[in-house]
Specification:
Blueprint (H helix, E strand, L loop, with lengths): L12 E4 L7 H11 L2 H12 L6 E5 L35 E8 L2 H8 L4 E9 L11 H11 L14 E5 H7 L7 E5 L11 H6 L9 E5 L5 H14 L5 E3 L12
Parallel strand pairs: 1-2, 2-3, 3-4, 4-5, 5-6, 6-7, 7-8
Amino acid sequence: GRGLELGHGGMHEFYAGYGYGLGGAYEADVRAALASDRYWSTVRAALSGCSGLQIFQFEDPTRVRADVLVPLGAAASGGATVSSQSQPWRLRVAGEARLFVAWGPPVAAFLAAQDALEALTLDAIPPPPSPDPRISAESAVHDRDIDVGALLAAGALPRLRVYEGPLRLALRRLRHAPLTHLKAHVPANAYEVAPPLPVLLSELACFARLRALCLMGLPHDAARAVPALGAVARACPRLLYLAHVPLPIDHSDVS
């Protein structure tokens, strides 16, 4: 991974990435930096000076420092709103953001301020494991899939055209957005909770401008795949691109 590029007012692209997996002294230095408040204060200061950003990529492998996306005090209330004195910085027109973070109030506050954002990749990784042994990592992922949009106000991201991220966030909070390209991750527990997956996919009809759709994690067995794809066909009749179409694993009887 490349290191942090410190920003300034005339900068158009900002990438914060980390060199895990390289081993040796370099990786040790990276881990030490990620554990340092001074490092994250530098990141926050760099972002506050990036008024002209057009492309922004941010990865937080610690899963606890997304707070640097907003000024100090902006997310202290635990909600997605911020005071006028501590507004998050904004991407310029036609902006693109790629966020690999644990979902929470700072991320929601950041996105709520991006009224010019046109493309968003959101990999809302689970927060750190719960100290409660009764809460498994698997259930945390399920909860993340269900609740990821809870903090983002409806009506946020009014210019968003391209979105990649959790399906339920798109259906709950981005219905008003003029989406033309959607790459959505079907919730891991989509077959265990209401509404049934075909009903959930039928809600894609709210995106009248949608032309390209990629659904990750659709079932491969025909009993579930066929109703799901039927729902997509009825909801999105004007698609020009569709992926990934699941094929039965056992296709020995198909000529």
